[in-house]
Write a structure and sequence with these properties.
This protein is of the alpha/beta class. Helix content is 37%, strand content 19%. A 6-stranded parallel β-sheet has the order 1-4-3-2-5-6, with helices on both faces.
Length: 307
């Protein structure tokens, strides 16, 4: 695996592959890789001839300086994991390479970036995400780019960005990978105190409870109340728990269509997010997640299991 830190050099490395009509896949990450990231890399390895993984802790998307400082970093371990999977290129620039002196451009994707995470963290968060992803897509010019379904609003923002700007790249969204107790994998999980780690699976239980209640035909308020009960039993006050249209991230209408149960909460100093897709009947839609091992999501009595 070749480690590249300069934009110009990466473009030079990829040029022969592009001339040879080899498919290039990009997996953007902020490092501290876990099985969720690696599942994206494996998918890229299946579909593309050349795989580029980016590792860049983007400072502009952190609304809390303490969160940026605490974000886990271990490039040596990340490199070892990627080498084992046969990744051709690791692009690991620093902030000065990505944001040189005089940098003054920001991309704002209106509408979809504003509710939920946008309301809690400010729309500047997704402005920063959209800007850095646009830069990575322009730098690598991949045929496909891979993102995890756990970051549902980020996926919606990126899909809208690519559509609106006519970017010639396919966006591949891969299933969430979970621990045995249902907790969605996240680089931030390793920052959880033991007591908070024990409470954290309540987020996934809340989503399953929402799905179960919706699947039984209960009204939106009743379905959300079932999820809130799971969170309250673990002493968790969410930033939000909602049922949304995954393309707009606004509250989903009650008359069918794609729906997504989404949750965010802070446990100690660590903020976690999760989601579960619902079908038109409000039931769990397909396999909501990949499992890191056997990893069945904890399911309340009477709740639907993943198909």
């Amino acid at each position: 695996m070749i480690v590249v830190r300069e934009i110009a050099r990466l473009r030079g490395e990829l040029a022969p592959h592009r001339r040879a009509a080899r498919a290039i896949g990009l997996v953007p990450t902020m490092g501290a890789l876990h099985e969720g990231h690696l599942s994206l890399v494996r998918r890229a390895r299946e579909l593309d001839d050349v795989v580029v993984v980016s590792l860049f802790v983007n400072p502009t998307q952190f609304d809390d300086p303490d969160d940026l400082r605490a974000y886990p970093r271990n490039e040596r371990r990340d490199r070892e994991l990627l080498e084992r999977l046969g990744v051709e290129y690791l692009f690991a620039p620093d902030a000065r390479e990505m944001y040189p002196g005089g940098f003054s451009t920001t991309i704002h994707v209106s509408g979809v970036s504003e509710p939920l995470e946008g309301a809690v963290r400010g729309v500047g968060h997704f402005d920063a995400v959209a800007t850095v992803v646009a830069k990575l897509l322009n730098i690598v010019a991949p045929h496909r780019a891979y993102f995890g379904a756990k970051d549902a609003q980020q996926v919606a923002v990126i899909k809208r960005l690519v559509r609106d700007l006519d970017m010639p790249v396919g966006i591949e969204v891969c299933p969430t990978v979970r621990e045995d107790d249902g907790l969605a994998l996240s680089s931030r999980n390793q920052l959880l105190a033991d007591a908070d780690r024990a409470r954290a699976p309540a987020l996934s239980r809340a989503l399953v409870a929402v799905a179960a209640a919706a699947g039984q035909g209960r009204a939106r308020e009743q379905a959300l109340a079932a999820g809130l009960a799971q969170l309250e039993s673990a002493g968790i006050q969410p930033d939000y728990l909602e049922i949304v249209d995954p393309s707009t991230m606004k509250p989903a209408p009650p008359d069918g269509g794609e729906r997504l149960a989404v949750v965010a909460a802070r446990l100690g100093g660590v903020r976690l997010i999760d989601n579960l897709a619902l079908d038109e009947r409000g039931q769990s839609h397909g396999p909501a997640s990949a499992r890191s091992t056997r990893n069945a999501m904890a399911t309340p009595a009477g709740a639907p299991t993943d198909r």
